[in-house]
Write a structure and sequence with these properties.
Length: 295
């Protein structure tokens, strides 16, 4: 049987599979969906010095703005020419519950770059690999936990690959959404006083700190478990924050699954812009079972 998902899809670290829990009983009236808030409509805030308080404030302001454009890159820390990234991700994201996102990942770790696209809409993940249909002649594959469980016997060892994909997807969107990245700040210590700088769209305050990798690994983040295994006792990080309390850039040390030290940079822009995210066309989307049937 042909491997249902090529290498790039396995390495894909770009979105979230979120399954919403529904309670029984009578349905309550649904609340209006929140709308994005542009920074111009937000008040300036006093930025705290304590890392834990700073992380909490940034997460709160991110949720208030609701929408954002994100670029993420991972570069080797040493041994490669400057700017030679291992992976680049561009993402449009709505920080709703569950979050929605659409993104493109370019994996440069192999001999040739491979590009994958992911959409997360209403708790379901859809994936597409450029140049290779994932389900027969259909470009997109739909992934849900229920479908993986149902097809587990037929998938054999590939069931675990799909589960790993879900976790990588979840971890990456958590990083972009500020959940796991703000853990780095909250559990860290500042190196010196914050510095005022000119950012891309105005003034920012840059915080520099270090965090013990063991503390981060205890929070369940695999990237930092890899860092512990690679011998990194602590990670260095930098966070640039606007007067509105919104992040503009976050840079942190990490380790790849191969144990190589790397630098991850997340850049945020277009906070609070109007954004619509929809699943791919149904007639160009198949399921895991469709992939098995066409193999």
């Amino acid at each position: 049987m042909r491997t249902p998902v090529p290498r790039t899809a396995v390495l894909l670290a770009t979105a979230l599979l979120a399954t919403a829990c529904q309670s029984g009983g009578e349905e309550e009236p649904s609340e209006p969906a929140p709308s994005p808030v542009a920074p111009a409509a937000m008040d300036d805030v006093e930025l705290p010095d304590a890392p834990e308080d700073l992380a909490a404030l940034v997460e709160e302001r991110m949720q208030e703005a609701l929408s954002v454009e994100v670029t993420m890159s991972v570069e080797p820390e040493e041994g490669e020419e400057e700017g030679a990234s291992i992976e680049d991700v561009t993402m449009s994201m709505l920080l709703t519950d569950p979050p929605s996102a659409q993104m493109t990942t370019v994996d440069k770790s192999g001999e040739e770059p491979e590009t994958a696209h992911t959409v997360v809409s209403e708790g379901v993940t859809y994936m597409m690999l450029e140049g290779e249909p994932l389900v027969g002649e259909k470009d997109w594959m739909r992934l849900t936990t229920e479908e993986i469980d149902t097809a587990e016997e037929e998938l054999g060892p590939f069931a675990e690959i799909f589960r790993v994909m879900h976790k990588e997807v979840n971890d990456s969107l958590e990083q972009a959404a500020g959940n796991s990245s703000m853990d780095v700040v909250a559990l860290g210590e500042l190196d010196g006083d914050p510095a005022a700088e000119d950012g891309e769209d105005g003034p920012v305050t840059r915080y520099t700190g270090t965090t013990k990798t063991s503390d981060l690994a205890d929070k369940g983040n695999d990237d930092f478990k890899n860092a512990v295994d690679a011998g990194l006792e602590e990670v260095e990080w930098e966070l640039a924050v606007t007067p509105k309390g919104l992040p503009e850039e976050f840079t942190v040390q990490m380790a790849t699954p191969d144990g190589e030290e790397a630098i991850s940079t997340v850049h945020y822009s277009a906070w609070g812009s109007d954004l619509e995210i929809a699943p791919p066309p149904e007639d160009n989307t198949g399921s895991i079972q469709d992939s098995l049937d066409s193999a």
